[in-house]
Structures are given as structure tokens and as C-alpha cells.
Automatic annotation (TrEMBL):
The protein, known as: S-adenosyl methyltransferase
CDD domains the UniProt entry points to: AdoMet_MTases (cd02440)
Coiled coil: none
Organism of this sequence: Micromonospora deserti
InterPro entries assigned to the protein according to its UniProt record, in alphabetical order: SAM-dependent_MTases_sf, SAM_dep_MeTrfase_SAV2177_type
A family per Pfam: Methyltransf_19
Amino acid sequence: MQMPDGIPAEIDLSRPSAARVYDYFLGGAHNFEIDRQLAEQIASMTPNLAATMRAGREFLRRAVRVLLDAGIDQFLDIGSGIPTVGNVHEVAQTANPKARVVYVDIDPVAVAHSRELLAGNDLTGVIQADLRDPERILTEARKLGLLDFDRPLGILLAGVVHFVPDADRPGDILATLRAAAAPGSHLVISHSTYEDQPQEMLDAQRLSARTDTEITLRSWAEITGYFGDWTILEPGVVHMELWRPDSPSDVDANPERFGAFGGVARYDQPAG
Ligand SMILES: C[S@@+](CC[C@H](N)C(=O)[O-])C[C@H]1O[C@@H](n2cnc3c(N)ncnc32)[C@H](O)[C@@H]1O
């Protein structure tokens, strides 16, 4: 098959990809017919979904700003997706031109487009890796030489941990990532949930099995557990829209309709 420009030849275009479906929902241009078909099918079942994805992106933007205000100037963004408007490095480098960002994604299309977009930006890097192999992510990130793991780091896991099934022990993965971070580091997580959700949302989740990565919805308690013993910042782990909205008028009348919890925690140096 003739591959579109910039797309690595090894990409399987016969299956939809979660990253490209997500890109389509966000209004991006990095998706193919197979992705659009699945996106439309999901959207017809859950008219909320495009708004949900935008809400996820907005949560990430607000969280990154809070980290920047806390002095974080380096970010490891895992499951970063296809670059669309308002990428982490854009938000971060607007506030601090010296901010460094390493993007990690499993999807070769997301990685190819990220490399294209970031060419010439010396303070950013891209790694193709699987969150289920956190040691490799850490090794590759260290090799890039952009992040200093002895200084506070922002670890971003927005809309990605739900792609890790229980069998791959997401709790252990999170523990590995937290253990690599210096005191003062922050962890940002947003994660889909079945709590407070209507049946249509749960049905759409079943469709995600048709992409390379199936979603596992989890409880508030499970998602909160991913922060380990780090200090969870106010207002806690909440429906994403309720996490420090820019303005109260931004909050939907039913913030739970987006079906995902978000939270941010800080690694405080243990006393003694
Ligand atoms: C819903 S998008 C989220 C994008 C971005 N973090 C955001 O919040 O706007 C999820 C991304 O996670 C990636 N992903 C899924 N499973 C992954 C894994 N095991 N390791 C790394 N990335 C993964 C997908 O390729 C996709 O780009």
C-alpha cells in the first residue's frame, strides 16, 4: 500500500489506532478512513465523546500550568498522542521558554508526527515506547539527556493508564515511575471510570476493543491508588472538569458525564 507522506511503512492501516481516533475527535488531521469510521461509530453512540476528549485535553493543560507555577520545568508525557493544538511543550514553553518535554507514545503514527512537529525544538524529545515497560521508558529518557532525574519532574499520564489491563499490573508500573522521581516531582493522571456512568458510555468502551488498545474502566479508589503515598493536591481526585476549572462557568452541569477522574500529586520528601 502507498503510505501517506511522513508515515512509517510498517504501520498497519487496516486497524484503527486509538491515537488517530483521538486525533480525529480533537479535530486533527492525522487520521485515516478506518479511524474516522470507528470514531463516527463511537460518536453516534456517545454524542458526549468529542467533548470528553476536549475536556481531557483541557484538564491536562490546567494541570501543566499548576506544575509550572510550582516550579516544574521538565516533563515526561507518557501516552502523549498525536500533536494537536495546545501540546504540553507549547503550554510549558510559553510560560517558561527553557522548559523541557519528553513525549512517549506506543503509536508509530503519533511518534512520527511528534518528531515532525518537534524538529528543531532542542528542548523536546520523542520516544516510541510502551507504558507497560516503564524501565525502558526511563532508560530511553535518560539516554536522550534532556531530563534531569535528580531534579523535580512532572510525570504526565493523561488518558493512558486505562489502556493498561489489570494483567499488566498498572499499580507496579506507577510505582516504578514514582520511584524514579526526585522529591518535589509531580504526577498528573486522568483515567476513565465506570463510576457514575450511563450504559451508553459503557457500551462505547466495548468498541474500544477494536483499536489496538482496549480500555479498562476503573474505580475512584483504584485511580487514587496510582498516586501511592504522594500528596494529592486540592481538590483531590475528581471528575476532570472539577479539577481547578479556570472559571466556575467552565464546569458542565453534569461534570461526571465525561467519565474520567483527574488528579495531581506531589512527592514530598519523607521526614527524617
Ligand atoms: C486518549 S490519548 C491521550 C493523549 C494525551 N495524553 C492527552 O491527554 O491529550 C491516549 C494515547 O495513549 C497512547 N497509548 C495507549 N497505550 C499505550 C501504551 N501502552 N504505552 C504508551 N502509550 C500508549 C495512545 O497511542 C494514545 O496516543
